[in-house]
Amino acid sequence: MALATHGGVVSRPPHAGGPERLAFIDEHEWDALVSDENFYNSYRWLASLDLAFGPAEVLTVRGSGGLLAACPLSEGDSSSPMFSLPHLMQGVAGPWGEDFLWLGGRRNTHNELPCIAGASRRQALQALGDSIVQHTRRRGLAGFVMPYMPYRAALEFAEAVQGTVVLHSAQAVRLVPPGGLAGAMAQWNSHDRHQCAKEMEMFRQFGNRVEWVPAEALDDQLAADLIAQTRARHGSRQGRAWMLRILHAQRRAGVMRCGVAALARRAEGVTALIIVYRFGRALHMRYFGADYAYEEDDRRYFVLCYYETLDYAAAQGLKVLRLSTDALRAKVNRGARLEPQALVVRCVERSRIARAAVRRHNRAFLEHYRKTFSGHLVPDWDLLESETA
Question: Pairing relation of β-strands 259-266 and 208-214?
């Protein structure tokens, strides 16, 4: 293998090894490659998934300076359409019923590859891509897929692995204005200001008040019960015990240290809560739960998730709220904008993907979001115009 020379110092080019365990990698080396937006591929979050569900493998690329790039390996979840390849690839012909290697953290709805910045980034990504292809072939799988990637990140990764980019979702994001909620309301039209004021008043009329607490101070039993109630309302069968296992794993992995919760309290009871996680200058909203024995329409969801978080983020000097991929209409109606998300897929036999069908799918996806969410899209959607022509 040829050696590269930089400023008279001889160094080895990026080198990808075989699969390894996250537990044997230095946390600080890993997180040095993770952006503020990529919290769900941070070391402690992935470590909590290992503790909850068993250790997963990761692929890495190293150079003379240490860790250069990495990729968690996971599995799809056929019980959920969000992590089912046949569902995500509807309308695009391909071998989607066969077994694929899934990349990214388990059940992640935001995936970027931990990787160095700068001149060596492209080379590191290509080395990682080669490792992914080789690992896929060794396991005898039909191909690999990484879902829920920001569109620009998907384009970069697809180029490195000669993969195909398929649009499949959007993520809501909210810049934090100076002054928090008051600053946001000053930018809204009269209808949106009235809506916010009315929802805040409805919340208060039922005797609710908000209390922010460190996630480490939460009662896990209470949190798991409320979150499981909400998840069940949206079709989840995983239940309270499943959620409790995740929260316990997050404590053991140290994730709770960057978490904070807002509780909606009424008298001595808790009617709802949210759990959010701070990473760098971003705040990531992950869990909402409610006690549906309180049947009143008190707008607790909107107050906790969209109004209180703005004030909290502003007070903490944070710059952006990342609000996930669901309830998009409610989020854009309260000031969020949408970012396009895509998956990158490659089959071992690349001819098995219908390229023309992918272009038609991506074009239809773009047109749907432009029509449905006009005025609420980030500039990255314009980049799709040339790519889908």
Answer: antiparallel
Specify whether 313 is located in the same domain as 368: no
Alpha-carbon gap, residue 294 to 175, rounded angstroms: 32
- Are 374 and 282 in the same domain? no
Provide the residue type at 138 as one letter: R
- Which CATH number fits the domain that encloses residue 365? 3.40.630.30
pLDDT at 81: 87
Residue range 48-63, pLDDT digits in tens:
999 999 999 999 999 9
Question: Does residue 269 form part of some domain?
Answer: yes
Structurally, how many domains does the chain consist of? Answer: 2
CA distance 13 to 59: 17
Beta bridge partners of 339: 171
Q: Are residues 128 and 191 in the same domain?
A: no
Q: Does 58 share its domain with 158?
A: yes
pLDDT at 136: 95
Range of the structural domain that residue 229 is part of: 177-318
The whole-number pLDDT of residue 355 equals 87
Cα(83)–Cα(52) distance, rounded to whole angstroms? 18
Kindly state whether residues 297 and 271 are assigned to the same domain: yes
Q: What is the pLDDT of residue 5?
A: 30
The residue type found at 329 is R
Look at the pTM and tell me if it is higher than 0.85. Answer: yes
The DSSP 8-state label assigned to residue 93 in this structure reads -
Is residue 327 in some structural domain? no
**347 shares its domain with 201:** no
Specify if 28 maps to a domain.
yes
Asked if residue 246 lies in contact with residue 277, where contact means CB atoms within 8 angstroms, the answer is no
Phi, psi of 85 (to 5 degrees): -60, -40
The stretches in the chain having pLDDT less than 70 are 1-13, 350, 388-389
Please tell me the predicted confidence (pLDDT) of residue 117: 94
- The per-residue pLDDT for 33 is 97
Secondary structure (DSSP) of 284-348:
EEEEEEE-TTS-S---HHHIIIIIIHHHHHHHTT--EEE--SS-HHHHHTTT-EEEEEEEEEEES
